[in-house]
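Order emerges. One example.
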Amino acid sequence: MSRITITLPNSLIDELLTVIDAKSKTEAVIKAIKDEIRTKKKKKILEMAGKMEFNTTADDLRHKDKRLG
């Protein structure tokens, strides 16, 4: 785990602690960072919708695995 020093406005930290319902500033910041990462990943996945083509059915994937034969 890395140890860093950052300067944040007190009002922002107070609001974060309230909104996230965290017990400590560290916990609140970690939760906020994880949430932001999750949001960005979800957005990327949603942007890919309709851009990928699958020509194998789920049934083929499930029952015709060539590694098992």
